[in-house]
């Protein structure tokens, strides 16, 4: 039998974390083989806006030598935020001027990172289905087409449902109790002016009765909306909502918002295209593992958390930059590099995951939106 291909460093996942890792390694003269299950870079839309935090996402972009290019793709005005109640009464508004967390579209950021790597750096259509550690300490990876390869260092940057994670930990993501229903309203300024006005120029939180709407104006003028509901874990699949029938699904979701302001209900009623259910999961807060030779995790694979701290992508990129830097700093001792990386990773991830869990409770407490208004006032007072 022919010997399977071997890679000194293999990265599973070409999301923001995996690409940042490959880029920073490359800047340090280290090649890594990157594998992703998507058939191509354009196989999936990369919708949504991300705010880049100074000490994580922006720090990673500096390490990647891409900070100036990042400044050129910022969505000006995207830092604006409004908090409304179920009657669409504005309870807090901030125009975002002078903010330090510029917004960028996830797709543009992904393209920036991908474009910084040579053609062919990522092998697309490579779905990992199995991983195991061999007797000689190397790791064997099996792809969906049956192909295998081995790696000295295997890095799981493969997101929430990581296939690498089981090499270091038994943990699996747990349902948070909140499900999002994702919709878009295209060309909102012209086609949905009332909805565009209620969302404003940046981020909208409209909360009450332990549910709500989270929405954002994208740079292309469309509205990206999540209706957020407290539901059982199997809500999206148990047949309560027929997601295959868009009009029926809209009616079912709108039943949850009976009595809410018409402009908020319109975010669902007027949506373009299908409704997509996105149950929100998280790994246990404080997830960590014992040092396992030649393998580690980053980003959601290591510390999936609910999106209510707005940290996940930022941390994935920071993890990646720090891991790459540690590997470059210890060319003859990768174990030392992985240990150093994980020593910083675990407490950082625990702190963010704790904040994320607290923020989820704040957004969906019976006191919302006042609880969120109070939280934001606290942040402002801290930074003043
Ligand atoms: C609704 C929502 C809103 C969010 N908003 C924010 C925000 O505002 N700010 C923020 O910082 N974070 C936010 N996040 C979190 C953020 O999206 C994630 O934390 C971030 O994408 C994690 O990056 P990653 O590279 O670790 O994983 P991912 O982005 O999930 O990338 C993993 C990659 O691995 C590939 N992959 C997966 N399995 C396999 C396999 N078996 N074989 C090969 N490849 C595989 C995938 O195709 C993917 O390309 C949000 C998340 C959600 C759900």
The CATH architecture of the largest domain can be given as 3-Layer(bba) Sandwich
In the predicted model, the low-confidence regions spanning at least 5 consecutive residues are none
Named once each, the bound ligands are: flavin-adenine dinucleotide
Q: Sheet with the most strands?
A: 7 strands, mixed
User: How many H/I helical runs?
Assistant: 12
Principal-axis shape: globular
Nearest-angstrom radius of gyration?
A: 21 Å
- CATH fold-type name of the largest domain: FAD/NAD(P)-binding domain
SS strand fraction = 15-25%
What is the class of the largest domain in the CATH system?
Alpha Beta
**Relevant CATH superfamily of the largest domain:** FAD/NAD(P)-binding domain
Mean pLDDT: 95
**What's the helix-strand series?**
EHEEHHEEEHEEEEEHHEEEHHEEHHHH
Structural domain tally: 2
Helix content: 25-40%
Please state the structural category.
alpha/beta
The number of distinct β-strands equals 16
Q: Span from first to last CA?
A: 66 Å
Q: Could you characterize the architecture of this molecule?
A:
The chain has 384 residues and is α/β, with parallel strands linked by helices. It has 2 domains: 6-76 and 100-173 and 284-363, 3-Layer(bba) Sandwich (FAD/NAD(P)-binding domain), CATH 3.50.50.60; 175-282, D-Amino Acid Oxidase, Chain A, domain 2 (2-Layer Sandwich), CATH 3.30.9.30. The chain is 34% helix and 24% strand. It contains 12 helices and 16 strands. The chain has helices at 16-27, 57-63, 67-71, 106-115, 188-191, 193-199, 246-255, 262-269, 300-303, 312-329, 334-363, 370-383, and strands spanning 6-12, 33-35, 49-51, 81-84, 90-94, 103-105, 122-123, 128-133, 139-143, 148-156, 174-185, 203-208, 211-217, 223-230, 272-282, 295-297. The strands form 3 sheets. Strands 1, 2, 7, 8, 9, 10 and 16 form a 7-stranded mixed β-sheet that branches. A hairpin with a 5-residue loop joins strand 13 (211-217) and strand 14 (223-230). The longest helix has 30 residues, at 334-363. The N and C termini lie far apart (66 Å). The model has no long low-confidence stretch (mean pLDDT 95). Bound molecules: flavin-adenine dinucleotide (FAD).
């Amino acid at each position: 039998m022919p010997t399977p291909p071997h890679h000194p460093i293999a990265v599973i996942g070409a999301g923001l974390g995996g690409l940042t890792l490959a880029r920073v390694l490359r800047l340090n003269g280290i090649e890594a083989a990157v594998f992703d299950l998507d058939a191509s870079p354009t196989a999936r839309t990369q919708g949504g806006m991300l705010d880049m935090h100074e000490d994580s996402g922006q720090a990673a972009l500096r390490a990647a030598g891409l900070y100036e290019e990042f400044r050129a793709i910022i969505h000006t005005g995207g830092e604006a935020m409004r908090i409304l109640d179920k009657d669409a009464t504005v309870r807090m508004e901030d125009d975002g001027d002078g903010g330090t967390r510029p917004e960028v579209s996830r797709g543009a950021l992904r393209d920036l990172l991908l474009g910084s790597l040579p053609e062919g750096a990522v092998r697309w259509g490579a779905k990992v289905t199995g991983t195991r550690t061999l007797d000689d300490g190397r790791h064997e990876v099996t792809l969906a087409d049956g192909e295998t390869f081995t790696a000295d260092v295997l890095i799981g940057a493969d997101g929430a449902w990581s296939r690498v994670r089981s090499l270091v930990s038994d943990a699996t993501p747990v349902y948070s109790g909140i499900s999002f229903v994702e919709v878009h309203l295209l060309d909102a300024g012209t086609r949905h002016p009332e909805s565009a006005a209620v969302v404003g120029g940046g981020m909208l939180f409209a909360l009450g009765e332990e549910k709500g709407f989270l929405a954002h104006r994208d740079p292309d003028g469309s509205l990206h909306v999540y209706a957020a509901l407290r539901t059982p874990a199997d809500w999206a699949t148990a047949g309560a909502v027929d997601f295959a029938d868009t009009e029926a699904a809209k009616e079912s979701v709108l039943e949850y918002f009976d009595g809410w302001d018409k402009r908020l209900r319109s975010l669902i009623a007027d949506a373009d295209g299908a409704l997509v259910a996105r149950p929100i999961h998280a790994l246990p807060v404080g997830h960590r593992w014992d040092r396992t030779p030649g393998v580690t995790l980053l980003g959601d694979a290591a510390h999936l958390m609910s999106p209510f701290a707005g940290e996940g992508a930022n941390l994935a990129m920071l993890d990646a930059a720090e891991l790459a830097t540690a590997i470059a700093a210890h060319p003859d001792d990768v174990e030392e590099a992985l240990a150093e990386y994980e020593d910083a990773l675990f407490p950082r991830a625990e702190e963010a995951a704790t904040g994320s869990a607290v923020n989820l409770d704040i957004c969906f407490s019976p006191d919302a939106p006042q609880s969120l208004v109070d939280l934001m006032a606290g942040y402002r007072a801290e930074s003043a």
